[in-house]
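re the bet — no i am not wrong, look at it urself. input seq straight from the record:
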Amino acid sequence: MIKISLKYEEDLRKAKAEAHKKSQGTFSTTVDRVVSQLESETPVLSGLAASSWETAKKQKTATVTNSQEYVKMLNAGSSKQAPAFFVESILLRHGKPKGSLVEYK
């Protein structure tokens, strides 16, 4: 009779840690791409709205904000430089959302 015992817990821990590290890098890269596209596709008169995109990242969540009040009107289609809902369009290029895409305050 042959009895073989394998201990793969350490291998699983290492694989999980490596996968997590890679996913964080991918997540961060995706968020950076989204912000870059928002900056380049936001209609420009003075450039203030385009330069006002800010990001806060926490583990698996990123919040992208723009403090300019009139960005709502730009996203609604008030400028001929970008279609209505350009923000949502950019977000949808990068994945399937959970919940609402844009929240106005």
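see?? The mean pLDDT is 83. told u. also The chain is about 45% helix and 10% strand. so pay up
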